[in-house]
Write a structure and sequence with these properties.
Rossmann fold; alpha/beta
Length: 499
């Protein structure tokens, strides 16, 4: 399996080369050179495997060039009990008749990003070795909150790598911020960017595509790569949990081979795109339901075919979805437009120059045959958290609550009773102020910090605080850099010791 750029530049590359590079030289994103097909018998054979067994069976379809033994070693190291606090890694929990929640936050940072970012740091050094790379790999990450900590934790002290994470100043929760600025490790750097996530993400993209800067760091013995979901090494591991969830539903007798829906809270489109690739590979998925918050650029796109980032940016109670430029959408456009890089280049050029583009009615019809989208505002999010806990006994974080709310709107609009899985992307304890406020009221949380609220939320809900969040406020702050977007390249130079 070779990989090609969505924008058509350069030659097809191996899986290892795609993972090492992160982004294609022409600024496009790597996608499989051909569609992967997993036969029904092969899917059925995974039913009685554990999560690691399923991962070891699925990844070789995408990561040709890696041996079965290498993939098995990466999988067992990534999803071990030392990192994940649930024996099933990504358990499926029944919410109500015909509706389940897929919990993706049992890893070391209590967010779904761990599902990919515990294995990518194992795949990347192998990729460097396979491609004869001698330079030290420098991972650059823009984060809306969760990717940053997950990447820092995954790449901490990995030989032959350094990692620098940029997050929006005042655009993440206090728990998320402290998770990053207290990060230990001899090869890690963290900086806040004055602006929002899109500012940080665009700044990283500028660095990746700056030929003179890349030449300069290459001369110093470094090479850039990415741990954001623009890197195929992030997306491939996410395909696994769609298959795993379906197989768990089968094993529990909740589906018998028919299709299911998946509801995905998403801002950057990577998480739901993994579901698209799972469907393309043979998983019986009827509809992928895209759940947005008030930054509902994706909802408008799915409904109209017009992508327009020229709108007000909202800071919401679901900050990991506070995104107006959904970079992974480019991969979907490539796949559904007949894999035409010229068309994709045109749309991405319009997005850069005008901030918007329109895909036309033909492609919109294809998108709407696969996707449905809706959004939930902050008030709806809080109401959904309380209602879900009071009526179902399930404690949801703000992002998962957006998913639940949008699914209810989908069901009301369509009457579709297909068995459905809602992806739960973060522990409620990562966003405990909002969750506690939803359950207990504004007065109950007034004047209390997030770490006092951890204890209050645990006591009131009867649930346990994730081990990685306990005593986080007692750790020393190790990273205090704050930069303008225009100074991000200088911050990278300083981190690498380049004068």
């Amino acid at each position: 399996m070779n990989y090609v750029s969505t924008r058509g530049g350069g030659q097809a590359v191996s899986a290892a080369e795609a993972i090492k590079a992160g982004i294609a030289p022409d600024g496009g994103l790597y996608v499989p050179g051909a569609a992967v097909k997993i036969e029904p018998a092969a899917i059925e054979a995974m039913k009685n495997e554990d999560y690691c067994g399923r991962a070891a069976a699925i990844l070789p379809y995408y990561l040709t060039g890696y041996t079965g033994g290498e993939i098995a070693d990466c999988v067992r190291g990534a999803y071990s009990p030392l990192s994940f606090d649930h024996p099933e890694v990504a358990p499926v929990v029944r919410l109500e008749e015909g509706v389940c929640v897929l919990e993706l936050w049992h890893g070391p940072t209590s967010a779904f990003k761990d599902m990919a970012l515990q294995i990518l740091p194992r795949l990347l050094p192998l990729a460097a070795e396979k491609t004869g790379e001698r330079a030290e790999i420098v991972i650059l990450v823009a984060t809306s909150g969760d990717t940053g900590k997950a990447a820092l934790e995954g790449f901490k002290d990995v030989p032959g790598t350094r990692i620098m994470v940029f997050f929006p100043d005042e655009g993440v929760s206090e728990v998320q911020r402290l998770q990053m600025v207290t990060q230990e490790g001899g090869n890690v750097g963290v900086a806040a960017v004055k602006g929002n996530f899109d500012d940080a993400q665009n700044g990283v993209k500028v660095i990746f595509t700056d030929e003179s800067f890349n030449k300069e760091i290459k001369e110093k013995g470094f090479k850039f790569s990415s741990a954001n979901s623009i890197n195929w090494g992030r997306l491939a591991p996410q395909i696994i949990y769609y298959f795993s969830a379906y197989l768990d539903l089968q094993r529990q007798g909740l589906v018998s081979g028919g299709p299911v829906n998946f509801v995905v809270p998403t801002g950057n489109f990577g998480n739901i795109l993994a579901g698209f690739y799972a469907r393309r590979a043979g998983l019986p998925v009827k509809r992928l339901i895209c759940a947005s918050n008030e930054n509902n650029v994706l909802t408008d796109f799915v409904k109209t075919g017009v992508y327009d980032r020229n709108r007000r940016f909202y800071r919401t109670l679901s900050p990991s979805m506070d995104i107006l430029i959904s970079s992974n959408l480019e991969r979907l456009l490539f796949e559904l437009s007949g894999r035409d890089p010229a068309v994709v280049r045109g749309w991405m050029g319009e997005l850069k120059e005008k901030g918007s583009y329109s895909v036309g009615s033909g492609l919109l019809e294809k998108i709407q045959s696969l996707f449905w989208s809706g959004y939930a505002g902050d008030r709806e999010t809080l109401d959904t958290i309380k209602k879900t806990f009071d009526e179902k006994g399930y404690l949801a974080d703000t992002h998962t609550a957006v998913g639940i709310n949008v699914y209810n709107k989908y069901r009301e609009a369509t009457g579709d009773g297909t068995p459905t899985v809602i992806l739960s992307t973060a522990s409620p304890y990562k966003f405990n102020r909002s969750v506690a406020r939803a359950l207990l009221g504004k007065e109950a949380v007034a004047g209390k910090n997030e770490f006092e609220l951890l204890e209050i939320l645990s006591r009131e809900s009867g649930t346990g605080i994730p081990r990685n969040l306990k005593n986080l406020d007692k750790k020393p702050v190790l990273h205090g850099t704050v930069v303008e977007r225009e100074a991000m390249a200088a911050a990278v130079k300083d981190f690498l010791g380049i004068i």
